[in-house]
Specification:
The chain is α/β, with parallel strands linked by helices. The chain contains eight helices and eight strands; from the N terminus they run αααβαβαβββαβαβαβ.
Length: 263
């Protein structure tokens, strides 16, 4: 349209021509803007990429052979066995944060870290509160420099009071990420889950509620890469072999998303 209330002059006509031009309609600008000459413009301002499907026909969805073309549009997870063994040697002070739901696992975790060279400080928390967690971290660590933080808060699958669709473990993990920043702790944070992911056939996923923390962890890794360690899914019982593999990851395996299994 070239006529609008209080906007119908020559400028409106030129603006309307520009609107149809950017939508693909050819306009003879030499005839419209006289005297004028075309000039080159930088192309970066006009580069566009659409992220939504634009009416893909059902023939094109079939693709070539048996593989649908839309397969590349889906998010995929592929687990690859880690070859070789790395030394599981830790050093410095490590903070282990746990709630009431992970008491037994916390003891196993503390024993594993201490058995591989770490000086372990255990901080038990009872609420998913940012300020309370920051105060508890400061109290537990004091003036010590921390080499790493291991959280078992995600193991609590109870619903959060006032928000029944949110597990306590997820809310507490969010609060811990914030609290560590408030407390000035820059050590990498490693979040542990138990059977929250499956690596394939024969590896059942028994704790899908904890899987939400894996989504959160990927976001935290992007927002706080300087103080993020990774996500580690461990078995229900942290035996000697699992403990060694856990500490090998914490010591620096180059992986930030790991599932520890018997294989």
């Amino acid at each position: 349209g070239t006529l609008r209330r209080d906007d119908g002059g020559p400028e409106r006509v030129v603006r309307s021509l520009a609107e149809v031009h950017v939508r693909g309609v050819p306009v003879d600008w030499r005839a419209v803007l006289t005297p004028a000459r075309p000039v080159d413009l930088p192309t970066y301002a006009f580069v566009r990429e659409r992220y939504w499907a634009q009416g893909v026909p059902a023939a094109s969805r079939r693709g070539d052979g048996n593989r649908p073309r839309t397969a590349d549009w889906r998010y995929r997870i592929t687990w690859v066995p880690v070859a070789g063994r790395r030394p599981a040697v830790l050093s410095g002070t490590w903070l282990v944060v746990t709630g009431s739901a992970g008491a037994g696992s916390a003891r196993e975790c503390v024993q594993a870290l201490a058995g591989h060279g770490a000086e372990v400080v255990l901080a038990e928390v009872s609420a998913a509160d940012r300020e309370a967690l920051a105060a508890r971290v400061r109290e537990a660590v004091g003036t010590q420099a921390v080499s790493g933080v291991v959280s078992l808060l995600a193991l609590d699958e109870e619903p959060l009071a006032g928000a029944p669709v949110v597990p306590v473990g997820l809310a507490a993990t969010v609060a811990l990420i914030q609290a560590l920043g408030d407390a000035g702790t820059t050590a990498p944070l490693w979040v542990l889950t138990q059977r929250a992911v499956t690596t394939g056939d024969g590896d059942p996923l028994t704790s899908p509620i904890q899987a939400q923390v894996w989504g959160l962890g990927r976001v935290a890794a992007l927002e706080h890469p300087d103080r993020w360690g990774g996500l580690i899914d461990v078995p229900e019982v942290l035996d000697g072999v699992a403990a060694e593999r856990l500490c090998a990851v914490l010591a620096g395996s180059g992986e930030d998303q790991v599932a520890i299994r018997d294989t």
